[in-house]
Amino acid sequence: MTKPVILTGLRANNDLHIGNYFGAMLPTIEMAKSHVDEYQINMFIPDLHSFTTPIDHDDLQRQVWSNARLFAASGLPLDNDDILLYRQSYVPAHSELTWILDCFTGFGELSRMTQFKDKSQGAEDVKVGLFNYPVLMASDILLYGAKYVPVGDDQSQHLEFTRDIAGRMNNKFNDLFEVPYEVSKQHEFFGKGQGLRIMDLADPSKKMSKSADSDKGVIFLTDEPGAAAKKVMSATTDDRASVNYNTIEQPGISNLLQILSLLRGHPIEDVETAYKGQSSYGDFKRIVADEVAEFLTAFQAKLADVNDDAIKAAFERSEVRANEQANATLLRVQQAVGLRQKA
Ligand code: ADP
Predict the structure, then answer these.
(1) Among the atoms of ligand 1, which is closest to the Cα of residue 197?
(2) pLDDT tens per residue across span 100-124
(3) CA-proximal residue: ligand 1, atom 2 (nearest)
C-alpha cells in the first residue's frame, strides 16, 4: 500500500519570507518530522513556475539552492526515503501533463483566477505562462495523487481548480486521478480554521509577498535580524492607540498579533489577551521586533550548518523516485487520452 501524499511547492523567484514559512513550509515540515510513518511528504521547488513573473535568470540556480537550504534549516529531514525534495523541471512529466490538461481547461475558467487578475493588472506584457500557472500547479499535485496540499490562503483558488480539473478528467476517463481534499478539510487536517495570510508590514492591505515592489514590509528569513526588527518598528498601524485583533479595522496591529502568535506557537486569542488595550504601539512593536530578531538569529544559525552535499544527495534520490511515480501517472493519462496503447 502506498501512503497518502502531503505535497507543497514554493517558487524560487526570491528569498522566502515568514509568510511562506508559516503558511506553507512549516505545516509540511512538521508533518515530515513527526508523521512520515503515515504519509509520504513531497516538498519541491517549482522552478518552472519561477519565471511566470520576470526574474533574473542568471540567478535562478543560486535561488533554487538557497530555497532548498531554507527548507533544510527549517528542519526538513533529508535522509528519509519517504520525504522527497525535488526540482519540478527535473521531472519532465510535470510539463507533459500540463499540456494534456490544458486541452481540457476552459479559457474562461483560467481568466477568473484571482492571482492571474492581480498579477496581470497593470502589467504591459502579460505572458501565457502566468495565465497557465494553475494548470502546471494542478499537474504538480495530480501526478503524485496528493491528498493534502498545505498552501497559504492566496493559493486556495488554485487548489479548487485542481479539484475541478481532476473531477472533470475522472468523469470523462474513469477515475484517472486521486482528488485532493477540499480547502476546508485541508485546514482541518493542519489544525487551522483558515488559510494563513500574513500581511505586508508597510501596507497591511496587501499580503506579504516575495514579489512585492518594496522589501520594506517583508521579513525575509535571510534578513539581518536588526534590519528585520527595524521593519517591525516602522510597520504601518492606525491611530486608535489600543491593541486589538480586528483585521478589518486594525489590519496592521492585527498582523503583528498574528506574527507574534506564530512565533510563540500560541493561539492568537491568548496573544491578544496578553496585550489587549495596550496604548503604546511603540512598546508593543518593540516586543514583536525583539521576538522576530530572536527567531531569525536562531534560524540563521541553523542555516549556517546546512550541508550542501546532503541536499544534493536528497535531490538525486528524490528525483529518481519522483520520476517513477510521476511517469506512472502520466502513462495512465496518456493511455486514457489515446496517446499510448492501453495495457
Ligand atoms: P509569494 O507570493 O511571496 O511570491 P509564493 O506565491 O511563492 O509566495 O507562495 C509560496 C507559498 O507560501 C504558497 O503556499 C503561498 O500560499 C504561501 N504564502 C505566500 N505568501 C503568504 C503570506 N503572506 N501568508 C501566508 N502564506 C503565504
Answers:
(1) 24
(2) 999 999 999 999 999 999 989 888 8
(3) 209
